[in-house]
Amino acid sequence: MIDLDTFRQQAREWTLSMVPEFGREARRGLTDEEDLALGRRYMAKKYEAGFAGVHMPEEFGGRGLTGLHKLAFDQEEMPHGFPSGYFGISLGMPIPIIMKFCEDKAWVRERVVAALKGEEIWCQLFSEPSGGSDLAGLRMKAEEDGNGWKLNGQKLWTSHAHIADYGIIVARSDPTVPKHKGLTYFWVDMHAEGVTCKPFKLLDKEVVCNEVFFDDVKLTDGQRIGPVGGGFGVAMATLMIERYVAGDADGFGPTIPFFVDFAREVEVNGRPAIEDGRIRSAIARNFALRNGLNSIRDRAFLMMEAGMEPGPEGSLSKLISVRSRQKLSELAIDLKGSEGLAYDPEATSKEDWVASWLSVPTGRIAGGADEMLLNTIAERILGLPQDHRPDKGVPFNQIPA
Amino acid sequence: MTILYDEAQEAIAVEARRVLDAQYDLQRLLDLVDVTGKHDERLWQTAVEQGWTALPVPEAHGGLGLGLLEMGLIAQSLGAVTAGAPFLTGNDAFVQLLLAGNDEASREAWLPKVAAGEAIGVAALGEGNSPLPPTPAVTFTDGRLSGAKSAIAGALQANAGIVWASSVGTPVLALVEIDDTMRRPIDSFDNARLYAGLVFDGASARVILEGDAALAAARNALARTAVVTAYEQTGGAEQAMKIARDYALERKAFGQPIAAFQSIKHRIAEIYGLVELARANCIDAAANVGTPQFVLKACAARLAASDAYDTAARDAVQIHGGIGVTWQLGLHLHMRRARSLSAELGSPLFWEGLLVSEIEAGVSA
Fold it and tell me: What is the ipTM of this complex?
């Protein structure tokens, strides 16, 4: 197997060579459709070059390397702002799940290769209007229908559903048992009759999320993943599957050096902001937070390389980095004063403080709200008790609404 | 240097903790708070017996010649028990400065004694509230030192110091033997740190380094001391967090453990985050010793660790409620130590400024 350093070097060279055609600058001014099309072309190139599905098994069309190779590639890819975001969830959760659970291997291979090349996109239909953090409280109904199933209900917050070809979904197949026990997991065809996606704008004008309605959508029993009533277990497996996700100590926002450059240009009370103690304090504090996260990441990487289990502190990345980004973005806008009021619809979160500030609240909620992350740390790492849960052990249909 | 501990390093940390826990006596530490000039002699004897005084001293001078990481792990263990003897950190700085100097005779005179625990050294760099004034007011003329150095941990018992001074406009590092006439004891809120200022009135001293080399050595020693102290702060913060956690699990109110309330459990989870960030920054700094990034990384470690310990100590008291503010429970030992360690070596205000200066000078992470 190719060693990590060589692989990382190759990844660095290849991603750099892609910058003119697919980098942040190349995307400026594109419509959503054009950008998605560019993204699909990028994914096709990535597949050709052998950087797609780095740690997925060769029998399914992956490269067959380790999770660390995948992480190394992601770290090299991240800074360039390629249009790969459309495919992150698709390849991160649904594709590994069908590889793991679906029995028709030829079909799975077709799907994996199509997803790796960017030809097909998968979405993950978990959250609903009645609950996001409380996944097991979902209401989407799955009823037996002849030899198969029939879905009725609504999902919410589904990223990229409107451009997706397939999805994975959890639904309630038995409302008479406690909430965790009455769920079943399926894959669905997003083009099937009765599936309606209504994309909506978030506060930063990004159109990523959808309401997705299911009206008598028919599934075969072959679309079931895992046992009837075993959906919660598969859902947990889905959320745990991606060990090798590259976090970003900058919370996917601007970097500290970017802030420092900015603080050198802008003035406070007639002096460069970089000379102002309050600004220096903010730089230093945020540097220390992010340097700590990078050190945790590097240590985890080395531990995995040595065949050890990394410590639980890796779970801090999102909690710490996104809050850091939020405060620094607010400060940057304050620094500009009335000149910070301008809004540039073309600007991206990595290089514009207003864009970063507008999109950062999503980061504190999506993929585990801060409060859920704190609960997880408190309960799993520190051994503190669970919150009071009045719905525990109560049949779902007897839980007071 | 790697950022993973090897087995020998793991063993050092585990053994240090075992030994320190075995001799821990809360009452002894509480008694120290009330008196100026007394330290925990039993703990210090343990440190000497364990060979911790020999850690930073090269083998050629009777020491073990181990690195910053090992020093850090010992300091972390000492921090966890709010150790009542502050000498290892000062010794380390003293040793580093002697090693950086060009005076072999002073090394031969002092290093074996420090290694054996027969002498205690300190670095006397700071003046006023600056841990390393660019132009020190203490002067060195014709072999004699004059002027005042601000509070130094361990100075009440130290036998020798390396002093940051000016010699006709050129900075020097000078070795001086410390006697009682020089000490200005400080009655502190954390007396076990043995703080004293040092006042020199023509004290005889010898220069071990001068000019830019002296500045570089002083900066490096200060940064290194900051990392050792950051480890100690991290150890204290982690212990305060564990005390808070254990109490929150045991104490019941409104029919359940108070740890079940999110205002409590989230607070402890936040401390966990600060502790792990401090630890990660310490490890990163120790791994960067000798690189151009070292000062930058030391600043980050110092800031993260000060924040972690202050917050952990403050919140641990709050989580305990009324019992937390009693003398006898002793949680105030962490509160005191968190503050004293934060203030004694250039406060976070200094380290924030230095960190940004490093970035401005082109050092990147």
Answer: 0.95
